[in-house]
Amino acid sequence: GALGLYEQVREMLEGDPDTLFNTATLLWELERYDEALARFLELYELDESSEYLSVISDIYAETGDNDNAIVYLERFIIERPTEIAEKISLAKLYAEVRDYGKSIAMYDEIIEESEEVDSQVHFDRARILLVYIEDYVNGVEAVEAALSGGFTNRTEIDRLDELLPTAVSDEIFALANRFGVSSEGPGSSLTE
Questions:
Q1: CA terminus-to-terminus distance, the chain
Q2: Which residues contact residue 67 at a Cβ distance below 8 angstroms, ignoring those fewer than 6 apart?
Q3: Which of 129, 148, 149, 150 is nearest to 138 (CA)?
Q4: Cα–Cα distances in Å, from 9 out to 14, 41, 45?
Q5: Which of 114, 125, 154, 176 maximizes the CB count within 10 A of its CB?
Q6: pLDDT for res 189
Q7: What is the rounded radius of gyration, in angstroms, for the C-alpha atoms of the chain?
Q8: Is 35 in contact with 9 (CB distance < 8 Å)?
């Protein structure tokens, strides 16, 4: 098929970065992750562009190799420290491998360095503080920051209920109600 023809052309253009990039991208889109990863690693050896580090990290994450995903994303962030989306991805990866301290530190860095922070960032930070670290004081403050930033997903707030002590849940629900986040159906909506 098209990939076979493309491979023949690639062999003729061996070492051409554009051809290698296009092949790697096509393989990634076809979910042929091992082959795509090999091509992107080869590209990185040729060019050492930080752009490839992020893609390599994404491929590792898609295949469940979070440890390598973290290694490449950390390298990316060292080279491009202002990339918020990648920092959020790294914070999530840290949480997935249960390195909650690093996850919270990355979320804190994002919040400190960004003028506008998505309310989901505050809520994700709150979930880690509340559920995994059991720092209820800072966790409730993070929920309040999320709600004041426009977080409206009552379903996610409700999911915390079964994981937290009653007193903490009651405080979070009181905050949600104070900010007008209702529990009407899937997702949520603001009510006046």
A1: 58
A2: 97
A3: 129
A4: 9, 20, 21
A5: 125
A6: 38
A7: 21
A8: no
